[in-house]
Automatic annotation (TrEMBL):
Family: Belongs to the nitroreductase family.
Cofactor note: Binds 1 FMN per subunit.
InterPro entries: NAD(P)H_nitroreductase, Nitroreductase, Nitroreductase-like, YdjA-like
Residue ranges of domain Nitroreductase in the record: 33-186
Source domain of life: Bacteria
Protein name (database record): Putative NAD(P)H nitroreductase
Amino acid sequence: MAAMHDGLGVARARVHLGRMSKTDRALEALLSRASCDDLVDPAPDGAMLETILSAGLRAPDHGKLRPWRYVVIEGEHRAAFADLVLKGMRARDPDVPQKKLEKRRKRFGETPMTIALGMHLRPDNKIPLAEQEAAVSAGVMNVLNALHLAGFGGLWVTGDVADDPGVCEALGFAPPHRLAGFLFVGTPEETPRSKRADIEDYMAVWKGKPVRFGADKD
Ligand SMILES: Cc1cc2nc3c(=O)[nH]c(=O)nc-3n(C[C@H](O)[C@H](O)[C@H](O)COP(=O)(O)O)c2cc1C
């Protein structure tokens, strides 16, 4: 781990020298990923979309249950899906503010692409449900990284919409299958940046005694 931390510094130095190796470039790309909410056209399509979603299917998957299911919502179908989202919001709260409704309509109706993150779960399987869900989450992370590497952007959201039975059923996920949320997808309007924590606070080398992390200081 220490070597990787050092390696990033080396990679940064090499950018200036214009001598980045393939590995340095790959690590730089991975470490520069950030979620993005301000997404415009284009979203990936065709073979590129399939490649990006294939990255999701490279996630670790205990028992080879392949629980990942991706539903792409785009083009004219976005408006109908936004209608469903708003219908659920009104059902949950008849007094939901108009402003909140309009915000959701804009997000689901105007973002270039939404990918519903389905989880095809098998409650009776010997692989615990938490591990089946972890495989889906690992897949989502791969998709987010693939989007970034291909020059696109994404944001993973959950919230009450992801648990809405009407929305889940309309997408094809009746219980026990569920949604792990939605990915909003498109091209970032500006290069997204997120504040990142320092790895030194989140790693430790075990030397026979319980470890303490800088991140957990009170
Ligand atoms: C399972 C999961 C659910 C999330 N749900 C939401 C959400 O509903 N709304 C939201 O604004 N961010 C949500 N986030 C956080 C964003 O996806 C994102 O990680 C966050 O904005 C930080 O940006 P970063 O990915 O660049 O660090 C969720 C993240 C995860 C892992």
